């Protein structure tokens, strides 16, 4: 009975034109709504795509501008590197003084805050290694000032004592950086530096250091002469530096360096290389020809870094004076 009733009601609905019309209107309205909704979604999608395309174009423009600026900056740094290289002693000049030497010189960026100096005057050899505060452009500018000053102090002012070289450089930098108008130094950066002055006749070496030491390898032993724990132009107060002496023999090796090699992070635990490892490797490789020593130092630090970024400029000088 209920099934027969339901069938009768269904037949009645199909035969009712009002209901059929209402259903048709509902279906048409639903289709129109869906069409409008789809059209609206399409417009929003097109607008979004247009905005994305505009943003992408803007990003491409900015990327092109950044690439151009980076190229300009890199070109400027490369040119600055050539200027810096022109100020550093040439290979021909150094080899004329010390036929047996190497220079491991590895800037963090294109230009370096480390610099070295070799000179010969009045039967004396002059060797210096310096590490200016910072690296990159600021360090390079400071190093260029330091190169000009050491040339002036040793060759023009003819300062012969190692401690006086550091003291004179301190005074020259003080004069350059101190401004009476404000009563304060405009630059507080300093220079870590080591300098050896060797008398060719007596073979007596004078050494003074501002933080940096000198290593001497003789008969499979490493001798360290430490520098003072103060920078050149660390402060503008009255300063002084100690002077040590050491008589060199045939076959002695001198190593001067900045702190970049020892401070480089790496290894299995991402720790600093440290000076004890540097002393060990220098003593180990001291029996090899100096060009081979330079290669081994480069390979060693590359292996130690294991993909880590270089954190500072690196410089190691190896010299056999006699």
Strand content: 15-25%
| Beta-strand segment tally | 14
How do the helices and strands follow one another from N- to C-terminus?
HHHEEEHHEEEEEEEEEEHHE
Number of domain units: 2
Radius of gyration: 37 Å
Q: What would you note in describing this structure?
A:
By secondary structure, this protein is an alpha+beta fold. The protein folds into two domains: 1-87; 89-319, PPM-type phosphatase domain (Phosphatase 2c, domain 1), CATH 3.60.40.10. The protein is 48% helix and 22% strand. The protein has seven helices and 14 strands. The chain has helices at residues 2-14, 17-87, 91-97, 136-156, 162-177, 275-285, 290-305, and strands at 101-106, 114-121, 124-132, 178-179, 184-185, 191-199, 204-210, 214-218, 221-225, 244-247, 253-257, 265-266, 271-272, 314-319. The strands form four sheets. It has a five-stranded antiparallel beta sheet, covered by helices on one side. A five-stranded antiparallel beta sheet has the order 2-3-6-7-10. Strand 4 (178-179) and strand 5 form a beta hairpin. Helix 4 crosses helix 5. The protein is elongated, with a radius of gyration of 37 Å. It starts with a helix and ends with a strand.
Keywords summarizing the entry:
322 residues, alpha+beta, Phosphatase 2c, domain 1, 2 domains, 5-stranded antiparallel sheet, 7 helices, 14 strands
Please outline what is shown here:
With 322 residues, the protein is of the alpha+beta class. 48% of the residues lie in helices and 22% in strands. A five-stranded antiparallel sheet has the order 1-14-11-8-9, with helices on one face. Strands 2-3-6-7-10 form a five-stranded antiparallel sheet.
């Amino acid at each position: 009975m209920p099934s027969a009733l339901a069938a009768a009601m269904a037949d009645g609905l199909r035969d009712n034109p009002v209901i059929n019309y209402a259903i048709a209107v509902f279906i048409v309205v639903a289709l129109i709504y869906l069409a409008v909704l789809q059209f609206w979604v399409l417009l929003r999608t097109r607008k979004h795509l247009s905005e994305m395309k505009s943003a992408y174009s803007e990003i491409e423009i900015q990327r092109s501008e950044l690439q151009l600026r980076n190229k300009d900056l890199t070109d400027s740094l490369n040119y600055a590197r050539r200027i810096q290289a022109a100020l550093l002693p040439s290979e021909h000049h150094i080899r004329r003084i010390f036929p047996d030497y190497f220079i491991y010189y590895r800037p963090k960026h294109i230009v370096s805050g480390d610099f070295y100096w070799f000179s010969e005057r009045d039967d004396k050899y002059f060797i210096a290694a310096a590490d200016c505060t910072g690296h990159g452009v600021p360090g390079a500018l400071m190093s260029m000032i330091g190169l000009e000053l050491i040339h002036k102090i040793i060759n023009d002012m003819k300062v012969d004592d190692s401690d006086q070289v550091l003291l004179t450089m301190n005074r020259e930098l003080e004069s350059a950086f101190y401004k009476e108008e404000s009563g304060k130094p405009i630059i507080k950066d300093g220079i870590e530096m080591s300098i050896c002055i060797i008398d060719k006749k007596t073979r007596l070496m004078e050494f003074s250091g501002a933080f940096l030491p000198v290593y001497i390898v003789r008969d499979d032993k490493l001798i360290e002469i430490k520098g003072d724990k103060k920078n050149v132009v660390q402060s503008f107060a009255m300063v002084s530096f100690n002077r040590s002496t050491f008589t060199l023999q045939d076959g002695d090796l001198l190593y001067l360096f900045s702190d970049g090699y020892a401070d480089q992070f790496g290894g299995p635990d991402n720790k600093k290389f440290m000076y004890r490892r540097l002393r060990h490797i220098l003593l180990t490789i001291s029996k090899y020809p100096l060009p081979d020593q330079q290669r081994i130092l480069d390979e060693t630090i590359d292996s130690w870094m294991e993909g880590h970024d270089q954190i500072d400029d690196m410089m190691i000088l190896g010299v056999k004076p006699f």
